[in-house]
Amino acid sequence: MTAAAPVDATVDAAAQRPARPASPYRLSFGRVVRSEWIKLLTLRSTWWSLGVTVALSLAISLMMASASRDFGGGLTPVMTIVMPMQFTMLVAGILGAIAVTGEYSTGMIRSTFTAEPRRGAVLGAKAIVVAVVMALATALTYLVAILLTAPILGGAGIDWSDAAQSWVPLGAGVFAMAMFALIGLGFGFIIRNGAGAIAATVGVLFVLPIVLNMFVFAGESWQWIVDLGQYLPMAAAQMATTPAGDDVLRGILTLAAWPAALLLGAWAALRTRDA
Q1: What is the SS3 assignment for 191?
Q2: How much is the pTM?
Q3: CA dist 115 to 32, 131, 190, 274, Å?
Q4: How far is CA 221 from CA 209, 226, 228, in A?
Q5: Which of 63, 211, 254, 270 could form a disulfide with 236 if both were Cys (CB 3.0 to 4.6 A apart)?
Q6: Between the CA atoms of 81, 83, 87 and 91, what dihedral angle is there, to the nearest 10 degrees?
Q7: Alpha helix stretches (DSSP H) within 107-244
Q8: CA–CA gap between residue 163 and residue 98 (Å, rounded)
């Protein structure tokens, strides 16, 4: 009986001891996003990719604005801003791919998953950062392009009073570039190899539309293959950015479906495979 008393006293003292305060350095999702933001913006490849995107887009916009009178009225002013996307989409996709494959090639991804074992949180953070960076870069590029082409277009500039001829195509263009980057990110997580992820991204964004369009010459029996091309990311982006187009919503939904499906596949791969 006497031996139990000290034990009970120890238990009571432990129960009365105040709980330790929670550490202020708990790795929340916001901190994961901040970490991914720092990692992406400290890579030289990121700035090279963004620089190429901006320079290429501005150069094409200026050339198209200068030649706009020779298009016979078939080129609306806002199209001189958004049409360079047909070329810069590849850089956006490659940026998304190397944002993750670089970590796999160096083994840094293991450190990332050690710091944050919730792999879905890492995937979500990377997706947010890549999409936001590409969207901001595209919006800034559009702003500069508008300012540079305005003196060239003169009175035939963008009609800002008509949203279908201005704000909607521009917003869709920003959204499309972010989706292209996420497509590359999804392939990067699934394939885990830089060359393979870039090849898959370029194949979906650029090569596959060309291949499917070749079946136009194959006759009516192959028309269904041509119709499938309307659901590729590039065709969807064209629908979404067409001024006063009838299929803007369809284009937006198709654009969103591609990265959604790839990121879902990436999440499944992260749960079933080791880093």
Answers
A1: helix
A2: 0.86
A3: 9, 23, 21, 15
A4: 18, 10, 13
A5: 254
A6: 50
A7: 108-115, 119-153, 167-191, 194-202, 208-213, 223-228, 233-241
A8: 35
